[in-house]
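Example 3.2
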Amino acid sequence: MIYPFIWMFFGSFKTNAEIFGSQNLLPNSFSFDAFVKGWNGVGQYNFTDFFKNSIMIVVPVVFFTLVSCSLVAYGFARFRFPMKKLLFGLMISTLMLPDAVIIIPRYLLFNKLGWLNTYKPFIVPAMFACYPFFIFMLVQFLRGIPRELDEAAEIDGCGSFRLFVRILLPLMKPALFSAGLFQFMWTWNDFFNPLIYINSVKKFPLALGLRISLDTSSTVAWDQVMAMSLVSILPVVLLFFFAQKYFVEGIATSGLKG
């Protein structure tokens, strides 16, 4: 699993002749020209702009996903209301729909709303919990938290919202970190949806910015492509290693300590 990253790292120091004509892992010489030239880009926009655009998409999407999906999951896991099972089943059934089926209706809808070439097609759905996978994951997490905690908080005078914020939300940290990490990775690496909804180069995220450097009408500087690919995946790799302890952290036992 790690070898492709190692090969990409050393490949960013090689010339095209070395990449295609040599089987050696190590380059003949080490130079950071590929990183400098790659960062400057091929036109009036460089990877500083692409990084900013990716952050402008990813940060609101992750934040609103966690807020909205946790609230919806709390409703499904802890409340009784009419047609609860039917609504939950409909929500889960949307997981069965592939993107190829819904991409055209979504495009037509966003076009009528005037959202094309903006970041609203990414941010607004996150505000309204349009990610059933995360809702289902958080519901299962909440079902594993003993209801005795809710009852004890209600005896102490906690309302529904205060119970969620003060009691359940801290216990949901492992699930929230997992959902946030998944959403960060999927949104950061997303190529298809920005390609459909964004048509202005100045608003391109990293995935589309990398594609610009692959100019088929001339020789591709693969060392620069690999250098920028390495830089673009670095935030995801670092986030994964810093947050992985939350994947194995228990919540039911930690919630009942003392």
